[in-house]
Design a protein that fits this description.
The protein is α+β, with helices and mostly antiparallel strands. It contains six helices and four strands. Helix content is 44%, strand content 18%. The N and C termini lie far apart (80 Å).
């Protein structure tokens, strides 16, 4: 064999191996990151709550982030941007318990009911309101998919929707 042919084959094998490695690393599930100011309760739904106060408000809004085991870069942005929006605009409500943040992996055992309860078909941010401990409505924030590449618009959308939910009777 000619040296040029050997070099060509070696380079093609290297490129092919590199592509296979990149594809494998993108498809591999990644461990869940811990939220910076939250504590993770040990529960069946593996929810992450950013409420520092143990008292339950008569009226509260839970901001759910529903995801599965495999989480892409976009899905991680949903988590990051939403948590940032809540912490920036609603620190008092997060502290007094009238607003809560929960991450739920719907693929964990015991969490399957969320898919039916909130009519989920993909990763989602859902606002769920309770009055005196009873469900009072919910809203799936579907525009997150359109706004995720525009962080300021995404954050504003989350804040506006949460504000409307907190203020509604």
């Amino acid at each position: 064999m000619k040296p040029k042919t050997i070099l060509t084959i070696a380079l093609l094998l290297f490129v092919g191996g590199s592509v296979a490695y990149l594809i494998n690393s993108e498809l591999r599930p990644r461990p869940e990151p811990a939220a910076p100011t939250a504590s993770a309760p040990e529960s069946a739904d593996a929810a992450l709550t950013v409420s520092q106060s143990p008292k339950a408000a008569a009226s509260k809004v839970v901001v759910y982030y529903f995801h599965g085991n495999a989480r892409c870069t976009t899905c991680r942005k949903f988590e990051q941007y939403t948590l940032e929006a809540l912490q920036d605009a609603f620190p008092e409500q997060l502290n007094d318990g009238s607003l809560q943040w929960q991450m739920v992996n719907v693929e964990n055992p015991g969490n399957e009911h969320y898919v039916k309860d909130y009519q989920l078909y993909t990763k989602s941010i859902v606002l769920a309101k309770t009055e005196n401990g009873k469900p009072a409505g919910w809203k799936n924030l579907k525009e997150i998919w359109e706004l995720v590449r525009r962080k300021p618009a995404f954050v504003q959308y989350i804040q506006d929707e949460v504000r409307n939910c907190l203020e509604s009777d």
